[in-house]
Amino acid sequence: MFRTLVALAALSSALACPDHTPPSSALGRRADENADEHPAEATWTFADQAAWAVDNPICSTGTMQSPINLSGAFSKVYAPTFKYDNLAIGTLSNWGYGPSYSLNGTADAPTFTTNGTTYYLLGFHTHTPSDHTINGKSAPAELHLVHGDASGAAKGVLGFPLVVGAEESEFFAQILGPTGAPNVTSNLLLDNHEMDMRKALTDSGNFKKYWTYRGSLTTPPCTEGKRWWVSGQSLTVSQEQMAELLLISEDSARDVQKIQAHGVGEL
Ligand SMILES: *[C@@H]1O[C@H](CO)[C@@H](O)[C@H](O)[C@H]1NC(C)=O
Ligand SMILES: *[C@@H]1O[C@H](CO)[C@@H](O)[C@H](O)[C@H]1NC(C)=O
Ligand SMILES: *[C@@H]1O[C@H](CO)[C@@H](O)[C@H](O)[C@H]1NC(C)=O
Ligand SMILES: *[C@@H]1O[C@H](CO)[C@@H](O)[C@H](O)[C@H]1NC(C)=O
Ligand SMILES: [Zn+2]
């Protein structure tokens, strides 16, 4: 049983993290995937990250691998201009490690622009603890808003460290609670779930401070060519919300990678 759960989780995570396969079809597949019949699919775990490179050499030979340890001055380049006012419509589920959400399509998706390019929101998910560290410190969790081009190919991710604060998060209020995201062992897909994505910004200082760099997917296949923006201000959730989030999450942080060709804050 445990093996099945781990395998399911590993399979779904490969599909749910910023990536290749359109998330909604991936999630649909997850629901009826029997890991014991597809042992080849379950090839990696967070517990043995050194093994990721066996099937995906770039995980160890890459020079722009994510996540990294961030510190120093905030970035001035690639400032995003948000157009998040459209309500998102999509499917809420659990990627085996925490809540995840996939938009139905890019047509009316929230977007941001920078450097003359539009990035469409594809979906989001969380990691626990945080993937990125700041001044060497992890946060209890991290939210990833995955964006792509109009065709749905992932190309940029916004990361938000999640910490406990005095106020309840209006963003997380939309995905926690009785009608919120299912637990890590559940295959439930909650369709037609609406999200006001502006709340992710208002809960975290409107993205005024950030670090940007050239990075990769933080799970196999560790594909590079993804631009990252990590908020310099954490998104705060209430103690109750953090407890609830952790209850439907499993450890899913990749070790921080050596800074090489990431060009933090550079054009
Ligand atoms: C969104 O996608 C889901 C899953 O494919 C589908 O059931 C639902 O009808 C779609 N909703 C809209 C508004 O297109
Ligand atoms: C920004 O725009 C310049 C000029 O079009 C282009 O060369 C560069 O690759 C762009 N950078 C990114 C990250 O898209
Ligand atoms: C992260 O960066 C801080 C500040 O430069 C440094 O003190 C710390 O040693 C770094 N930690 C890691 C794990 O790289
Ligand atoms: C997880 O959710 C499923 C329903 O999707 C439920 O049957 C199961 O009891 C839940 N597990 C826990 C530990 O809450
Ligand atoms: Zn992620």
UniProtKB/TrEMBL annotation:
Segments of this protein annotated with the region Disordered: 19-39
Comp. bias regions, Basic and acidic residues: 29-39
GO MF term list: carbonate dehydratase activity; zinc ion binding
The keyword tRNA-binding is annotated on this UniProt entry: no
Keywords, comma-separated and alphabetical: Signal
Record's signal peptide: 1-16
Residues covered by the Alpha-carbonic anhydrase domain: 42-267
Pfam family, one: Carb_anhydrase
Record bears the keyword Methyltransferase: no
Protein name in UniProt: Alpha-carbonic anhydrase domain-containing protein
